[in-house]
UniProtKB/TrEMBL annotation:
Role description: May play a role in protein folding in the endoplasmic reticulum.
Pfam short name (any one): DnaJ
Cellular component GO terms, alphabetical: endoplasmic reticulum membrane
Topological category with respect to the lipid bilayer: Multi-pass membrane protein
A biological-process GO annotation: protein folding
Matching SMART domains: DnaJ
UniProt subcellular location: Endoplasmic reticulum membrane
CDD domains: DnaJ
Alphabetically ordered keywords of this record: Chaperone, Endoplasmic reticulum, Glycoprotein, Membrane, Signal, Transmembrane, Transmembrane helix
Name this protein carries in UniProt: J domain-containing protein
Organism: Clitoria ternatea
Amino acid sequence: MDPPPAAIRWRTTAVPFLVAVLVLTTISPSRAIYCDEDDCYDLLGVSQSANASEIKKAYYKLSLKHHPDKNPDPESRKLFVKIANAYEILKDEATREQYDYAIAHPEEVFYNTARYYKAYYGHKTDTRAVLVGLLLILSGFQYLNQSSRYKQAVAMVKKTPAYKNKLRALELERSGGITNKKRIPKNMDKKMEEDLSKELDLQITGTERPSVWKLVGVRFVLLPYTLGKLLLWSGCWFWRYRVKKYPYSWEDASYLTQRSLGIPHDRWATIDEATKEDLVLRRLWEKSNMERYVTEMRKESKRRR
């Protein structure tokens, strides 16, 4: 006679549940992550109060008995793997402390598991080494990117008529006024090309020649020096112009003008000296002068339209 459906359902659901409860009550999940169903101390045959020397001595004694080179029995080999794992856990003070805590607090399953995986799978590399490696990688990519962008910009500039005209003018200057009216030969003097490239550096806006001093790694290393230099500069500025009330030097007045106009340093360097002098003499770092200058620029723009 077949059992009723209710009994079948109870058997298929309750029995596995009872088995799982039985396993969890006999084997602590906190301990199981270390030596599976075994006790690490029992595997080495020592008590929980054993010191490091006793643990080491017990491991070497068992390894002589169960090492695969000494004992070819497959069961002995499996036991040696467990013994070696138990020794790795107990020989380290940190992992042994974690294991002892798991034994004393089996109810803290998630906490003990997190500590275990952090100890065994978390990176054990020195943080400083990781930081140095990261800076080197970032600096390398940064330099390659700058170099690639600069080469592309130079290649584009060399295709422009302005470049060819300057190249012809430079050839004319070098030859003393005698030049070939035909197209510029491809095998032109390399020294001439280098001289012209130096002149082109100032004309490639938005792209600069790669420099190690602008790499993130170098800047990070020089950060203490940069901060010290900035603090010293700020202190001298405050003493000279706030305390002593000295008039601004031409260099400092140019800096204030550039900052007031919001012009990048590279762009400011390309402005002709006459325009720079006119802007500096206007004292645009003063609010009233800046407002007057903006009004004039707006009127000038409307007049040109």
